[in-house]
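> example.struct
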């Protein structure tokens, strides 16, 4: 990650205290590495904007708390069950499948594919008679979401697994067009102060990334669509430090509003499946042409190539956690991230915008 992002600081300058998790998987290494890289990037950004590189001090206990923040919330009123009964691992005729029904539209798609069974037991019994991959495909075609649990060798033999082999976990692309330089900041400012971010993400990975940017001082605007309401837990946990707006992107007047908004945006983070934002002109490839000064980050579950290049997915379906059924090894699936290089040399720092803009 450091090499891909072009970070040249000394990682040994990071002080790490205590362990994070106990797990048969290298969770500690993942937590420490990902947060450390984020801190290093923030320190380099601070150096570019202020001429002062802050010391990085990493407390793994704090990181562990942040990684399970949704479990530590103290909401003003009870949240109720965090998982729908049908969001579960369930046996199929030939193995196991992980279903998702927390969002109403995903739950409705699942019930529609199953023929609207009159209870959880009947739904589970129906699924037990289904071929896993056929059910997986039918659910996605119906607008739902699910992932068959596959062994590593099964995933490597799968068409999407083969397509993923040559895809990097993180890809950084530099545009031939000039990117907008960053504004300078005072020496005591947070690294991202004054940077304006448009947050087009959902669920976990994207909202956590933009929450981190907000914690580093960025002005983050989260834009949601009214036909895809967010879960209350994700609002309370994922909207921290952000401004949140609900707006129908399909309305005729929305295009003009988007164009006005983008004139003041420095970074767009997209967490929808590849090409889902094309009708609204918000895909990274479109923004690179229409608004070349904007940096973009695109997160996708399965990458942007192969037969699943446009399939919806999330962290849960990609990693199939250690809590998977005992006879079903977690699949070797990886989420993908693509971003256009956006940090520019100090010599090209953008002057501050006039007040009122």
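> example.seq
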């Amino acid at each position: 990650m450091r090499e891909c992002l072009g970070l040249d600081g000394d990682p040994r300058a990071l002080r790490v205290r205590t362990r994070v998790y106990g797990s048969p998987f290298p969770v500690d290494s993942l937590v420490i590495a990902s947060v450390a890289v984020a801190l290093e990037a923030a320190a380099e950004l601070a150096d570019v904007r202020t001429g002062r590189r802050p010391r990085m001090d990493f407390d793994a206990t704090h990181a562990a708390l942040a990684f399970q923040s949704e479990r530590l919330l103290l909401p003003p009123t009870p949240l109720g069950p965090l998982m729908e009964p049908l969001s579960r691992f369930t046996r199929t005729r030939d193995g196991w499948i992980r279903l998702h029904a927390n969002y109403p539209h995903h739950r409705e798609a699942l019930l529609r594919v199953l023929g609207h069974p009159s209870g959880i037991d009947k739904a589970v019994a129906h699924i037990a008679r289904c071929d896993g991959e056929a059910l997986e495909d039918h659910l996605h075609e119906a607008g739902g979401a699910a992932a068959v649990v596959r062994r590593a060798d099964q995933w490597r033999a799968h068409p999407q697994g083969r397509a993923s082999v040559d895809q990097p976990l993180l890809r950084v692309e530099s545009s031939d067009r000039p990117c907008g330089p960053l504004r300078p900041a005072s020496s005591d400012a947070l690294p991202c102060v004054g940077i304006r971010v448009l947050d087009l993400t959902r669920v976990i990975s994207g909202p956590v990334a933009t929450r981190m940017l907000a914690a580093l001082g960025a002005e983050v605007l989260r834009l949601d669509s009214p036909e895809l309401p967010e879960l209350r837990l994700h609002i309370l946990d994922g909207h921290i430090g952000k401004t949140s707006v609900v707006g129908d992107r399909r309305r005729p007047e929305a295009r003009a509003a988007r164009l006005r908004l983008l004139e003041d945006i420095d970074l767009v983070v997209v967490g929808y499946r590849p090409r889902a934002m094309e009708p609204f002109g918000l895909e990274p490839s479109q923004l690179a042409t229409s608004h070349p000064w904007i940096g973009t980050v695109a997160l996708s579950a399965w990458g942007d190539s192969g037969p699943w290049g446009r399939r919806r997915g999330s962290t849960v379906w990609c990693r199939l956690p250690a809590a998977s059924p005992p006879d079903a090894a977690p699949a070797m699936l990886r989420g993908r991230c693509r971003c256009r290089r956006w940090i520019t040399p100090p010599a090209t720092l953008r002057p501050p915008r006039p007040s009122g803009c």
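> remarks
The chain has a mean pLDDT of 78.
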